[in-house]
Amino acid sequence: MSLVHDHRAVFNILELMTAEVKRLKALAHKVVDVHRLSFRFGDVFMEFKGFQLAFRVYTMHNVYTLHKPKVEKYHDKMKVKSREYAYAGGQKKCSGLFEATLVEDEGSVLIEARAEHDEVIKCYGILLKDLEYGKILDTDWSFKDPEGVIVFSYPWIWLSMTRYLPSPIFFIEHLGKEYTFALSLDDKVRPKRFRVVNHGRKLELALFHEEDARLMSTHLESPPWRIGRTKKPELVIEERMKLMEEKWGLKPWEIRDDVPSWARRVCLVVNLHFKHWTGYAFNTYKTAAEALNWIAERISGENVLVYMPGWDGRYYYDYPIMEPDPELGGKEGFKQLIEHAHSLGMHVVPMTSAVAVGFSHIEKLGFKDAIVMDKYGNRLYENWVDWDEDGERDNIWYPVNLGHPAVKKYFIDKISSLIDEYQVDGIFLDICHFYENDPRYSFYEGLRDIIASLLSKYKGKILIMGECWYDALLPIIPMTHSHNLMPKNWPYFYLKYARMTYHLSWPAPGSGSTGVHEKGFGKFELPRLDAEIIPTLTIVDDTLTKYRDQAEKVIEIAKEWGAKRGIL
Known about the structure:
The chain folds into two domains: 46-248, Immunoglobulin-like (Sandwich); 259-351 and 401-564, Glycosidases (TIM Barrel, Alpha-Beta Barrel). Helices cover 22% and strands 28% of the residues.
């Protein structure tokens, strides 16, 4: 074969491989439409207050439905009891116990259930069939047409094929702005899932409650679910907010005691990028100080929050060492940068990991035992980023559980040292919305304990920032940079308690570089004046040498944004 033909063959193979990769990626980001039973499972549906319901119990080994359940109906109540389970399409039976009580309550239905089985139970499900067609709630609380099978999870589950919801609330929007809804009244952080199947004119909705893996046993008792139909969805939202305030002590932004007074005056966030994973430096501590000088000439420093990704060496590679990088200026240079920012009236929040530990540090830190496990006991090593652009993902870090005592102590000590030595004004905790149902420790409780320890030590002086959010994070993290996740509907659910900035990957003026972030380049856009998201200016290597005019426009918008909200 000639060289030309060899090249053509290679190109053809590469094209096929590229097409296959695209197909697989599309499947990975598509809804979960492949994990469906290939036979009729034999669920027993029963009617109550207009709903057709069935129940399932899921153990660590199999899935079961009720066999010949006893159903007692009253005017406003229904009791369901079964002492036997059926599975494998009814081909097999086994003993056990399932009880559910359904009560009509102010036009909706409250459902409570408990289950017993010889096997360890992980979760139970409520199946609702023949629901009127409508648009379904999406991650950002907009509504979309359902396609095939879609599964949503709460909280965000690590490397899951599901989409995530910020609160265990789900709506189907029908014509005439009437809604079918499901709301979990759980006041603990435990997984919930919502599976929607589009059958054309009708929808099927399944609700799943999963037990904390540390507590899984042969018994399960579920917190209440509320389901119903309403023309006032805000009442459903407000019921969840009331629970958050009463059970978690969540307070409005204006009176939170974990928000320093200076943070309430911020109307410009500077995403000041330093060192990329590859070692490329967008800024040194010296050039960063020069950038802050330029910004201070155009807006009062007291209205500026300086957020610093990659300040501590190679982004992600050096997580979570939290030490100034010698190549960027070292300890003295970093100290001078913070002092200089303070002299301009600005406040500085460096970025660090809340979950990622670089592979070159995991053993040195003694954290191998802290690598997160799923509920089946599998350790999670996966990552999703191609950091070096060779066409393959690079598993260069491990997710560790903040609930592990050694990890918790390390983070408290290192962040405290950072605050004490350099007088930074807070800390940004990357991927703080991480969740996995680990049977040994709770990541959420570990995160909560670390933050509580820091706030207790630095009362009213530091700001805790995070990446994305779900409702149980609101009481402990008052500011996030997840602009794509501001609720499109009922934004007060978030804004009553917290504030939001544009994400780390917000493109810089000019080329649209996302700095240290893995997104590479994007399209530069000006912040929206009408959005309740704090205007953000991304600074990379060429921002103020080539694109000052665009940077100045961002600052002008920030000043106008602040003036409209009484900050300036």
